[in-house]
Design the sequence.
């Protein structure tokens, strides 16, 4: 599985309150969440994000409350993957559970810049910055994680498995 897109870059400690502000937590409509994704941090996010784009960030991405709305909003906005130095553990679990691929790679997070074009090969565990001609190795996703992501999340994977799909 591969993804390819432009980088939208953020810094350290991006918490779930700026990913999706609390005033929108009364909705589970993914389109509505996507419309408000990052609005308190980056008011231009929804106008610049394109399907396939990749968020790159620093340390502790997704810290704060344990709301599943945060990775849902990111995924629904069209982001294909988030690369960061590291993630808050609950965000990491929530992202995988809803089928949003995330990767920890400090050197890629440091060296990628806003607007760079990046390709990620989850099978090989490689991140390639096409703009800068740089490449990094990360851990390839195990088959079971790729299955969850391809299915669109853990619940859909379980439904597919029980239906024999």
Sequence:
């Amino acid at each position: 599985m591969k993804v390819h897109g432009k980088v939208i870059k953020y810094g350290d400690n991006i918490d779930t309150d700026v990913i999706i502000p609390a005033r929108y937590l009364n909705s589970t409509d993914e389109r509505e969440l996507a419309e408000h994704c990052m609005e308190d941090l980056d008011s231009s996010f929804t106008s610049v994000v394109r399907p396939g784009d990749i968020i790159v960030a620093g340390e502790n991405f997704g810290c704060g409350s344990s709301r599943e709305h945060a990775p849902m909003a990111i995924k629904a906005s069209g982001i294909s993957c988030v690369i960061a130095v590291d993630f808050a553990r609950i965000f990491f679990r929530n992202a995988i559970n809803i089928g949003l691929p995330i990767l920890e790679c400090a050197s890629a997070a440091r060296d990628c810049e806003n607007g760079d074009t990046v390709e990620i090969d989850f099978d090989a565990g490689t991140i390639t910055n096409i703009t800068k001609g740089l490449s990094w190795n990360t851990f390839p996703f195990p088959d079971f994680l790729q299955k969850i992501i391809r299915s669109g999340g853990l619940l859909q994977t379980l439904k597919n498995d029980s239906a024999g799909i």
